[in-house]
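R.M. (postdoc): so does anyone remember the format we settled on? I'll just put the structure tokens first.
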């Protein structure tokens, strides 16, 4: 079982162990009850004769009811040897009642003494020792974690895997993330428990510092890493002589546990438009020693934690700008399909009364009841203000529907042209610019309800925004930002393979975005893990690779955590790559 699976099992096991110890101590402290007397065994039945029935023999006819026998008091007296009962006169009964002592009232449940609870037996020395060992173990673990946090960043040397931005096209990459591995000629594709792994990284051993991992490990060839697509186990292969890039013998599984393109695309309806692969990104191995500048952004430092995409969303932009134009047919067709999907969802005709009509009718009924004497909590002024705001909203929404109907017709004409042209024509940047200009010329209207600036009861401010179809406004999100998220996903694959695929204008947007993600999500080698993992001791373990969840690389581990791959130093010295420890940080 991999350490990724055991991380959760360790937590469950620790909880069960603690519950078991508490139960054990509780049982030991209870008084021992006296054992019950054994039950008297039944006498064995006589064996049943052949044909004999065990059912009771019941009479076929109802028994005759015997007449009740009356017994006089004198006869009862003779049987019991007591004098017969003599009735008292009325005066004698009254006198006896007055002189009889009053009967005690039955005690109430609240007045009854509570049953005594037996005092629990004091814990034994063995119980005290067990609890003490547990506490000592917990304290030692906390102290160990605190010590690791204190010494994090003080390692003699660590290596950062810095993505090349832009990639250097004039040289052959020796270390890279994602894409295709370079295995030895004839080597089979690595499998993990009979499942082909997904390639995630290959690191040139010759580029590692001599003192990394305390000088242990190979300094020739390269280390290739493959991950199980479902449970996260990892296979490490020492490639002595790398051959040509090898295509995987199986299609990429976008439904795997770790594929997650940037922007939360894994969890929405845009997933079919993503590139189903980890981009092949060349990296430089940068040694970092105490006091050196670190290219990795410290996640604990305070500062702007917003990504470039988030800032664009809040500020607004227009994809008619050449920086955001599609750059191939895949990005172009994805753009028009997203536009078609969104206008179909948000601009479709609604049968029957709209929600605005329903609200307006409800307010009119409330106002009529109020005028008839059934006072409304909002008051007449509030109801009148609400009615006026809803009427204004109704009129604005009707005008927006009319304008957006025209916008939809024009947009669908452009969508049809792109769909028809994609399989027949070569892609052209000029054609893409013409499409974006045509979309920019279309205007659409968004109606918003906002708080009344004067604070009048029941009143709202109705705002109508008329904007180009290519403009993203933070108060009028329709389709543009969805397209931008897919644009970035396609752009990073194209850029990593050849930066010249993107125009200069597009690179001015893409490169700062990619550098920001790369600094936040930078992998590392030979360090104390950045985040806590359960099974790690820097005296006996070496960090082979720590991969943070990455929007740039389209992978995610746990809840946006880190995949930490370590190896015992004894195995590292012996070249045992079959026993890596795989853990997800928490």
């Amino acid at each position: 079982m991999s350490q990724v699976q055991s991380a959760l099992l360790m937590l469950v096991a620790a909880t069960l162990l603690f519950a078991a110890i508490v139960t054990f101590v509780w049982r030991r402290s209870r008084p021992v009850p006296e054992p019950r007397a054994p039950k008297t065994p039944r006498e064995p039945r006589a064996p049943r004769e052949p044909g004999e029935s065990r059912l009771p023999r019941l009479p076929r006819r109802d028994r005759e009811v015997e007449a009740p026998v009356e017994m006089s008091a004198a006869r009862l007296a003779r049987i019991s040897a007591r004098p017969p009962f003599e009735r008292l006169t009325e005066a004698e009964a009254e006198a006896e009642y007055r002189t009889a002592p009053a009967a005690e009232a039955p005690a109430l449940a609240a007045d009854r003494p509570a049953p005594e609870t037996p005092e629990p037996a004091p814990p034994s020395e063995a119980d005290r020792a067990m609890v003490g060992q547990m506490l000592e173990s917990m304290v030692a673990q906390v102290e160990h974690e605190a010590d690791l946090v204190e010494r994090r960043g003080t390692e003699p040397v660590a290596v950062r895997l810095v993505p090349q931005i832009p990639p250097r096209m004039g040289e052959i990459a020796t270390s890279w993330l994602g894409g295709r591995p370079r295995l030895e000629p004839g080597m089979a594709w690595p499998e993990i428990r009979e499942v082909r792994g997904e390639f995630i990284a290959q690191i040139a051993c010759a580029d590692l510092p001599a003192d990394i991992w305390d000088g242990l490990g190979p300094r020739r060839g390269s280390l290739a890493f493959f991950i199980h697509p479902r449970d996260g186990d990892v296979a490490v292969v020492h490639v002595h002589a790398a051959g040509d890039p090898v295509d995987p013998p199986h299609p990429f599984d976008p439904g795997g546990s770790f594929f997650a393109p940037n922007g939360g695309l894994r969890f929405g309806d845009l997933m079919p438009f993503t590139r189903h692969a980890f981009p092949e990104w060349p990296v430089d191995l940068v040694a970092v020693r105490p006091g050196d500048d670190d290219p990795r952004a410290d996640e604990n430092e305070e500062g702007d934690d917003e990504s470039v995409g988030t800032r664009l969303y809040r500020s607004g932009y227009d994809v008619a700008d050449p920086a955001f134009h599609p750059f191939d047919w895949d990005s172009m067709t994805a753009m028009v399909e997203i536009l078609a999907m969104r206008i179909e969802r948000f601009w479709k005709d609604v049968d029957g009364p709209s929600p605005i009509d329903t609200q307006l009718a409800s307010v009119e009924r409330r106002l009529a009841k109020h005028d008839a004497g059934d006072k409304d909590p909002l008051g007449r002024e509030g109801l009148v203000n609400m009615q006026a705001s809803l009427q204004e909203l109704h009129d604005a929404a009707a005008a927006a529907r009319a304008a957006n109907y025209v916008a939809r017709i024009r947009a669908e004409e452009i969508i049809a042209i792109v769909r028809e042209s994609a399989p027949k024509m070569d892609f052209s940047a000029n054609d893409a610019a013409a499409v974006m200009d045509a979309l920019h010329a279309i205007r659409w209207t968004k109606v918003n309800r906002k708080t009344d600036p004067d604070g009048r009861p029941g009143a709202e401010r109705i705002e109508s925004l008329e904007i180009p179809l290519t403009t993203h406004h933070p108060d009028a999100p329709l389709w543009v930002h969805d397209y931008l998220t897919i644009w970035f996903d396609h752009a990073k694959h194209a850029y990593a393979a050849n930066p010249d695929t993107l125009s200069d204008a597009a690179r001015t947007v893409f490169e700062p975005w990619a550098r920001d993600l790369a600094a936040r999500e930078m992998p590392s080698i030979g360090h104390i893990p950045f985040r806590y993992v359960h099974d790690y001791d820097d005296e006996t373990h070496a960090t082979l690779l720590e991969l943070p969840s990455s929007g740039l690389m389209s992978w995610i581990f746990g809840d946006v955590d880190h995949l930490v791959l370590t190896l015992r130093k004894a195995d590292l010295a012996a070249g045992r790559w079959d026993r890596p420890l795989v853990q997800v940080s928490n």
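R.M.: ...and that's the designed sequence above, right after the tokens. Also worth knowing: The CA atoms of residues 148 and 537 lie 9 Å apart. The radius of gyration is 41 Å.
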